Amino acid sequence: MKITILPDTVINQIAAGEVVERPVNVVKELVENALDAGATRIELAVERGGIASMTIADNGSGMSRRDLMLAIERHATSKISKFEDLSGLNTMGFRGEALPSIASVSKLQITSCEPDSVAGNRLKVHGGRIIELQETAANIGTRVEVANLFYNVPARKKFLRTPQTEQNLITVLLHSFALAHPHIAFHYQIDGKSSFQFPPADQQQRIQQVFGRHNALNLRHGESRSPEVQISLFLSRPDHTRSRRDQLYFFVNRRHVKDRLLSSWLQQAYRHLIPHGRHPYGVAFLTIAPELVDVNVHPSKTEVRFLDIGLLSKHFHAALGQILTEQGGTESPPVSPSILTSPNRTYNHSKPAASGASTELVRQSVLNDSAPLALPIDTGGEGDFSPLQSVSEQSTGSESASLNFLPEDSREHFDILGQYAASFIVAVRNGELLIVDQHAAMERINYEEICARSTSEDTAMSSEPLLFPHPLPLTSAEVEVLKQHIPAVQALGFGVEFIDSSPCLTSAPFDLPSQQALDTITAVCRQVLDDKEKNMELPQESMRQMIIKSAACHKSVKAKKTLNHQQMEELLERLFTCSQPWTCPHGRPVALAWEREKLCQMFLR
């Protein structure tokens, strides 16, 4: 076959494959255009998840007749004029690919009017071909209507999901824009019905609008700043998590991004505080000097590259450290004015940020009674925001009768009332009713004792040889996992040898019975393999933590084990000497406490 030059319509349709994969991509590009046009109000209406139609209207600067024609040409943009402009980019868009890509795979109509014009102009483009351009009456700003997406590319249309799924993706996207731009009003309509209206607000009010009052109540704030980097985090308490990550937002210079590095930092910070498979929710705002971040990585503009990862890491972890304190992150109350106005809540690593910085770091309460409430986020049920407590939080008032993790001042005198279901210790401290999970409490005690005996990866724990080798009941895949982590296993006192190609346990930590040692190694290998199957990467240093957690679990007193008064008293005394007595190593609650007022509220008294 001979080489030929493709027609512009085909070129645009191919390019659209990178920019426009589904309706949510169209909405993203058009909302970014509205933001760059200086809009203070953006309205979005979708039909059938955007598959049938999407309409976005703004009150921005609008376009002239000439600019309207140029807007559908590839690589035509008002954002940059030379490559060097990318290093100081302060707009959302810059490629000049969005509108021509959208126009090539849909029936597009753009109506726009500049502030000083007596009339506007309307442009119709079907499948990349101009159908009509005429003068028309119009409001100041731009209105873009996209109908019949992929009508001329049926192969791509087949890959779209259900209208409900596409609609949910658009909803999450619009929430991200609303969080990043609280001063802008957003109105969202779905199939002719209003979904939400967010009036202009400050950052705290907008967070409450998007997440809802109850969920905002469980957010905590941490920040760190320097002239080059400013970090402001609003993240959920470890006892309020989700089964999915879809309500965790990262913003770099107000641009919503999906960054594996930031996600991994957050995941590792919460790893020992929340159960496996659960995730925090909240918002991370990063304001970085433009020359230190590259946003020109992919046409979707959701990926970025950081020039100074070390500087970013220092500030990000400093802000995280304020949220997840050394006591485990659950001893302090949720975000409140007293916390956020405390002089100790901000780390100033150097001089304050320049006055022209684009992000104003928030130092007030997330909660504000005057802030409008958002409608519930449709998450498909399974992924709803969820506290870890096992007792439902219900009350007749607007506030929940919540169960609280054991606060730091619990290390006081307590009276043991008894044991419930041979699994829970019931006690009273300072007028509060306290219920302690005996297995979780013993896990915490054992975990901290093992950690204290093995403070370094270079320090091997003492062990005792077994009378005879014990075969490890591992599959071939689990054996490969074990081989990869032999040094970490041996450093913690577990001796492993391969006898006739079969792995055997030859020694164990001196206080761990052989069967518990076998169960520990087997459970860890299976967990690592399970994580790999879920595409969850395991940092090398985490293997050590997994082994310690597993050992602590297997040597702990189990549920359904009857304890006498002396044993319960000894367990609680040992628990209250731990640095983190309120959560087990896997992040589950160890103790729950009710004040008398909360109990009365729960009983409608």
From TrEMBL:
Residues in MutL C-terminal dimerisation domain copies: 416-563
One Pfam family of this chain: HATPase_c_3
Gene name of this polypeptide: mutL
One BP annotation, GO: mismatch repair
Organism the protein comes from: Desulfurispira natronophila
Listed Polar residues bias regions: 338-349
Function: This protein is involved in the repair of mismatches in DNA. It is required for dam-dependent methyl-directed DNA mismatch repair. May act as a 'molecular matchmaker', a protein that promotes the formation of a stable complex between two or more DNA-binding proteins in an ATP-dependent manner without itself being part of a final effector complex.
GO annotation, cellular component aspect: mismatch repair complex
Gene3D superfamilies: 3.30.230.10, Histidine kinase-like ATPase, C-terminal domain, MutL, C-terminal domain, dimerisation subdomain, MutL, C-terminal domain, regulatory subdomain
Keywords: DNA damage, DNA repair
Region (Disordered): 327-359
NCBIfam families: mutl
GO molecular function term, any single one: ATP hydrolysis activity
Protein name (Swiss-Prot/TrEMBL): DNA mismatch repair protein MutL
